[in-house]
Amino acid sequence: MGSGLVCYKKDNKDEIELLSNKENNLSSNYAFSNYIYFKKAPLLLNSKKYFINKIIKIGTILNTDISFYIPNKIKTYIEENPFEDINSNNSTNDSDKENIHFEKPIRLKNNNIIYIGEWTREGVINGKGKMYKPETKTYIEGEWIKGCLNFGRIINFENIYIGFIRDNLYNGKGILSDFNGNSYEGNFLLGLKNGEGTYIY
Length: 201
Fold this sequence. Notes:
Blueprint: H1 21-24, H2 26-29, E1 36-38, H3 45-58, E2 59-61, H4 72-80, E3 100-108, E4 114-119, E5 125-133, E6 138-145, E7 148-155, E8 159-166, E9 169-178, E10 183-189, E11 192-200
Antiparallel strand pairs: 1-3, 2-3, 3-4, 4-5, 5-6, 6-7, 7-8, 8-9, 9-10, 10-11
């Protein structure tokens, strides 16, 4: 797992990326207002405008579904093996009730990562969402806390991991398997198998 794979923090100081005319007018005509909702209470119009401006600074709003970019092998696995929704037993995100859910995928600047899901009002990934990194053909879904994945599922052409993450490394209880049916279920510590676990060949 490379640096930045599941941990994305941004200071929002980049120049605004050039967008199409339709996307460039988002902050003024609220064309995407129907794609934003606040988990705790409805956002005021000015809050929507503030959030959209933050999003435009972070990346480009896409008009296609995130699955359009995912390779067929990974897409087929996802369709045949639905990921269980993260429940309160896994969630440690104290601010999840404040999250803003934006239903359009965002292509983040500089690293080509595509993300769809929940954000903070300031434009930091926070809460449940899905992410795809084309460079490494890696699909991720789970729960982020302040820009870093806390719990989720990571899928690439080599293996599938489901469990807890810390500093971009497998950490805590998890299951690491491959497409041939081999798997390890147990504890991880900073990316390495640690303590008791079960291998299935």
